[in-house]
Amino acid sequence: xxxxxxxxxxxxxxxxxxxxxxxxxxxxxxxxxxxxxxxxxxxxxxxxxxxxxxxxxxxxxxxxxxxxxxxxxxxxxxxxxxxxxxxxxxxxxxxxxxxxxxxxxxxxxxxxxxxxxxxxxxxxxxxxxxxxxxxxxxxxxxxxxxxxxxxxxxxxxxxxxxxxxxxxxxxxxxxxxxxxxxxxxxxxxxxxxxxxxxxxxxxxxxxxxxxxxxxxxxxxxxxxxxxxxxxxxxxxxxxxxxxxxxxxxxxxxxxxxxxxxxxxxxxxxxxxxxxxxxxxxxxxxxxxxxxxxxxxxxxxxxxxxxxxxxxxxxxxxxxxxxxxxxxxxxxxxxxxxxxxxxxxxxxxxxxxxxxxxxxxxxx
Length: 363
Description:
- By secondary structure, this protein is mainly beta.
- The chain has helices at about 5-25, 135-140; strands at about 25-40, 50-65, 70-80, 85-100, 105-115, 160-170, 175-180, 205-210, 215-230, 235-255, 260-270, 275-290, 295-305, 315-325, 330-340, 350-360.
């Protein structure tokens, strides 16, 4: 009898291994960066010391618990994470459960990226983007203005809540949609952790629709709304703060080599009893493959963080190259420029340029 124990255990474990590998997929991405200030103002956003950055490594885990139920987690380690000496960041970008009723209707619950525009859901997946970093004017208002309210994001990066999403065909064109309800942004709140507990009864709503007009041309529209309570540093309620943002996007494969990405975002921020203003931003990204592996691009983006303030805009532009040196291994380089108008509170009309490079790997 004993002679059958080892073969039985091997058979059992091999069966479990087969079941495990059928249900679980592991992917990820790695990004390493370099920046050096070249000319202009030595702003804190510019790196004057030619620095290397262990930007991130992410492990993406998908578990297909059943034919309909999927659990997805993106674990991230950023900037040389070492928690015992409080360096870098460790966390998860998203962790949600998704249940599929049909292609037209799936349900998600958990922490998710906010589905707004082209870049937010993929902003950490550097191998999937042509450019070295996503455009600040449409994705990071805090890199456009340091005014207490102007730096408020057009939409938060993440949210905890539920979502309905799906895809189908209409008039011969494919489309996808997502409707998301979350706690919203608690930057000005008391709890400060919107992934754990809300501090008001209002919920943030995000919606996006994307339509493939042809095999080569996709357009999309996004909207975000949140009403939150604005607290001061002593946790005294100052009144309501309302964020309303809208966005349009386009991805056009003009031919096999030439591609164009563009997006425009605008919105209002209404801080009860303090200020109310509109802000906007856009980016344009043409790119062209000069060989099978060398992709040239030019990013131009601009933001006005407050339409009520004159000469307040910031322009970013970056000619660059993206080279796929091996399968899913990319070297990116650009010449990044920041130009601002005199009344911008962050830059004050002072400009700078820097050289940036990155090694991005997907696996």
